[in-house]
Write a structure and sequence with these properties.
heterodimer, A: alpha/beta, B: 818 residues, alpha+beta, 4 domains, 12-stranded mixed β-sheet, 53% helix
Chain lengths: 256, 818
Amino acid sequence: MEHGNDFVISTQGLCKTFSVGGVQQHVLNNLDLQIAEGDFTVIMGNSGSGKSTLLYALSGMDRPTLGKIIFGGEEISEYSNDKLAKFRRANCGFIFQESFLNDNMSIMDNVLSAGYLSKRPRKQVYGDACKYFESVGISKDMYSKFPTQMSGGELQRVGLVRAIINDPKVIFADEPTGALNSANSTAVLDIMNDLHAQGKSIVMVTHDIRSAIRGSRVLYLKDGVILNEISLGNYDPLEEKSRLDKLKCFLDEMGW
Amino acid sequence: MWSIIKSHFHKGKTGFIITGLFISLSVIMMIVGLSICLGMDGLYYNARNLSNSPDCWISVYENPGEEQALLENILKERDDVELYDVQEIYYFETAIGEDDNNRLSVFNSQGQSLIFNSWLAMNIDDEDNAFKPYLRDSVEKEGYKFYITGNCAETSPISVGDEAVYVNNGVRYEGYIAGIYDDMTRIYHHSNVYVGGDLYQEIAKLSQTDKSIIEEYSINIRFNYTDEKANTLAQQELLGVFVDALNDYNASRLQEDPTAPIVYSSYWTREDFKTGTRGFILLLGTAMIAFAIIVAAIVAIVIAFLVRSSVLDEVRNLGVWKSLGYTTNQLRASYLAIYGVISGICLLVGVVLGIGLMPTFVGIVTNMARLDCSKAIGTNVGGVFIAIFVVVALVSSVVYLSTAKVKRITPLSAMRSNIQTHSFKKNKAPLDKSRITVNAHLGVKSVVGETHRSVMVMAIVLIMSLLCSFVSVVFYNLKVDQSAIINMSAIENADFYIGFYYEDPSPYFDAIHEMDGFEADVICTRVGISIDDDYCYGQLYSSFDHMRTNFLYQGRYPKYSNEILIEEQYAKSEGLSIGDSVNMSMEVDMVKSEKSCVIVGYFQNLIDNARFLGFVDIIDELYDLDDFAFYSQHLIYFENGKAPTIDQLDNVLREVAGGNVQYNGFQRGRDVLNSSFLNTVETAADAVMSVFFSITAIVIALLLVMLIKLKLLRERRNYAIYKALGYTTADVMTQIAVAMVILGAIGSVVGGIVGALTTSPMLSLFGSFIGAGHFSFIIPWGYIVAIVFAIPILIYAVSMLCAIPVRRIEPALLLRVR
């Protein structure tokens, strides 16, 4: 899917400053960005460039120091913590580098603990969870397993199911394959591409080129500003080689 | 190893502080409780010295004087008599038919008056008095001085400075209460009044002409035994020798002259004071020790939880240390070191506070004993060492046992972050089966998922609610509905106790019988009778049909004059049981009369009031005595709700007398109970209730603060995940509070019910040592329900307050976690 005309997220003059040991660190600097609905946006950049900070700001997990974030037509930058929490449950799904599942709950409970926050009937939520689990290759006999009893790839797939259980407007993924081996990474990225193909907007932070080529648009972040971006179009496995070359070329230009 | 100590300290700061507080609290309670219990004998011995009381005294009347030398010779021959004196005293009989004559009236600030119809005057300014009483309070004013006992002052109530008037043949001797004194042998006898030297001289003059003022003398004796038991035995033995000597003296005089007047005597010892107070003071001391043990148990549970949690958190570090060559014992020693330091500091604080707070607790004992004991009881050094030993032994054993898991940690398990290759963990309370809100369900999952923590919280709440329940049952029965405790006292709860100084009081009783709602009139008297040659006191009644105090706990009430009830403890000590026959004997007019009686039931005697209960004609000769009726009291019963006030009854009797009535005792039954033991019991109830309830609330609150702070520290990551998923601060707080409330509710329901049901059996167990082994307290289910609801509400409120820092956990924390 190409860029749509409707922006699901846009930012104006976004700034984020951290104070570390009394020293101000400007992680995001007056950043303007638009993300179209149905887009698979990849954010790349060197370590400390502000990728994750941008992702967390866009998703309402963190508040900017300055600037506006407009999400689905609503300015969320001034929301209170509780309003942001309610906003996230309705609009955002998250996939983290570490699965960040609750070790004291079964994988089904981890998913349902997010799903039951929606207003949908519980049966429907449970049905969706089963459906999504099946789609990511997790069988019914594993539902009652705990995170400590599963492999990294399985955990990330559970995290993915949890991210989509409430049918969010945007899925935010922070280095989703960072802790996975090649086979598990491919499996997770395939699922994400399937979701994108179904019309989901995805924003993913990664430093892995093989993951980045799955996106339709790649932004390059440096010192808290978007240095440049490249459009790759929708992912097609057959075009993987050419996408890789194109992206490598782009990244070389960016000095990566 | 230092890193383990540092990390443990960092994560468990609040836990350490709270554990430390509990240790100090336990030490304080243990020191005070042990000091009270171990210092009981010392209390009475020291109180005797502080109040300058004799150990016993004898008053002799109808005396020709010769027998005084006889008695003094007995004393002089004894090595164990440290000190004695002989005091001239005057006994007043309110003259029959002459209004107000010899009556002492005291008027308190509330406008109430206390009338002493028959009383005993002693000279406070007597320089030869070796036992000048200790004045706990005194004041100087114009007028004659009167000094009353502390017990009399408190029960009336009378304060120093209150107006007092003695009237003799129309002459008013106006004065005031110049002091309140403590004398352990006189404390329960209101009629013992010290007067100033000037009034005493006046009385001495009056006694020359007024035959209703009887000159007597008292011999006050103090023994040199420092051991309280030896002292008590000496008192009994000496009084026995006195009785025998006077009997022999009377017998020889009657042989010479059958019309010679008999020398009468009365005896008092410190035993009344001891038996009236010892049980309740011991109960307070025992309760404090019990509470100290409970708090120590909580300390053990908390330390076990903290250490186990720390070992689980530190698996990686412990494994690394092991890989470097540290042994299990060395690693366990690091935990012992941490808790050793904490316990040491808190022990020291506890000991200092225990010693410092001792006077406060002694104040409570003082109120219960109605004697100023503030200097009579102090910190018991043995108690301090016991407390230190208990805490050190408890902490080290708990730490040692709780670190057992360190043995199983290997360098390999550390590398795997303790993830097991095989896990049999079960998914308890799955969300897909949930019918409740998601927050409540997550709270439930937290309860079933963290078994150790849940068991700890539940156990502590259970213990505390059990204690609250126990205390509330005790409080209810000591303060609100005292029928159960009265039943154990062997004191009848009639509407009025009344006696008259008239040769024929029948017109007065006839007037009472005519009153509206009159139900019954029962004669009652206290006598000393030998049971199988063992001399003891008993209570006699003309009927057991109207009793409002249910004395009986086994057997039946006597139906015939040869049947008696016997006090259970006494029966046990004498090997007597229901159905046994005993020989009851007493000397009446120097003639020994006997009767064989059958024991038909047992009663309990919490305050050592009587060893047996029987009919007034148990010894016919006793009942036939001319002055029996004169010395007896009548228990007057009115129908339920129809009892007149004391003034209404007084007015009816005044009409009969045509003026003031010459009462030989006139009290409401309730006042008799109050002055006997209920005032003491109520003071104990108030003290126990307020101390225990506030400590329970503090313990639960501190426990929650510790747990929730620890939980927030350990679960930060999970809460950040919840928040990232869309849970609000209120949602997370609710989950925490729900988990605690569930545990609190289970603990409080179980603890409340078990506490209520076990109060009487527990008290019976302790009470059996003081002659009251059959408590059947009423269970105030309303109170229990209130406790069962109040504890979870308290837990909810404290949990929500403690969980407020959840708002500082932000989902962006996950960034930093990564």
